[in-house]
Design brief:
The structure holds two protein chains of two kinds. By secondary structure, chain A is an all-alpha fold. In chain A, about 75% of the residues lie in helices and about 0% in strands. Chain A has one domain. Chain A contains six helices and no strands. In chain A, α1 runs parallel beside α5 and α4 runs antiparallel to α6. In chain B, about 80% of the residues lie in helices and about 0% in strands. In chain B, α1 runs antiparallel to α3. The chains are: A mainly alpha, B mainly alpha.
Chain lengths: ~140, ~120
């Protein structure tokens, strides 16, 4: 936890902390992808379950529980990152999750890969790189 | 396969709700300090997490029907909106670099959706 003083001046952001926030969110998207993989695994047990059975299942089916726990960890880390970073940079970074999910789907669930998907992945990574590298610099030193 | 309008509306609304939720998450995050009450009685954080949950339910419902090539780009509408919210509520600047980054992400997600048919 950083000192409470930052709460009164939300716009003054230390460049080192801003970079740290960007790294945290990038790692976070990996957690979400693993969480989604676990939820998909666990959801197979629930294909015909009603709302109540689904809610109980979240606590009793281990992969489902683990998946939602990872979502919880993601939320905590994301909130922490938001304290020291710009929303306009950090929020779009979540799109990196698409990259991990597509890779997981191909590797774990044997979905097909095609040139369009590869192009999509490369362009998303380029966009994230532009935001992460340039977005941090653009307003540096500007309160 | 065609995409039902209801799916498009669900995903679009989910995406908008998610981006509005991020405003609450950020302002809630700034209200946090070392005292536990700043977390326990943090209504902004609660609203942020709540909207995040609602938007993910809408995504799952919307994505279950229709073409990903149509639905995926709708998700990224939320990223564009967030640029606007950040400017309005947190005085962040909308720079060319940010627009380029979000633009690339939007194009990439569209390609991914096209490849997903």
């Amino acid at each position: 936890m950083s000192p409470a003083t930052s709460s009164s001046e939300p716009h003054v952001i230390d460049p080192a902390k801003r970079r740290q926030s960007i790294l945290i969110v990038i790692c976070c998207t990996l957690l979400v992808a693993i969480g989604q993989y676990l939820i998909k695994l666990g959801a197979n047990h629930l294909s015909h379950a009603g709302l109540l059975a689904t809610m109980i299942g979240i606590f009793t089916i281990p992969p489902l529980f683990a998946g939602y726990c990872l979502y919880g960890v993601f939320t905590v880390l994301f909130v922490y990152a938001l304290r020291n970073g710009e929303l306009s940079i950090l929020y779009p970074l979540i799109a990196l999750g698409y990259v991990w999910v597509t890779i997981t789907a191909v590797v774990a669930f044997h979905e097909s890969m095609n040139p369009l998907k590869v192009t999509g992945l490369v362009v998303i990574v380029a966009g994230v790189a532009v935001l992460g590298w340039g977005g941090g610099k653009a307003t540096e030193g500007k309160p | 396969m065609t995409t039902p309008v209801s799916s498009m509306v669900l995903v679009l609304v989910g995406s908008l709700i998610g981006s509005v939720g991020s405003i609450f998450l950020k302002s809630g995050a700034h209200a946090l300090n070392r005292h536990w009450t700043s977390f326990a009685f943090n209504w902004r954080l609660a609203v942020g997490i709540g909207t995040y949950l609602v938007s993910s339910v809408l995504f799952v419902k919307g994505m279950s029907n229709g073409e990903l090539s149509v639905l995926f780009p709708l998700v990224s509408v939320g990223y564009v909106c967030t640029l606007v919210w950040s400017r309005l509520f947190f005085n962040e600047t909308i720079t060319k670099v940010k627009l380029a980054g979000v633009g690339l992400i939007l194009i990439g997600i569209t390609f991914l959706g096209l490849g997903g048919r």
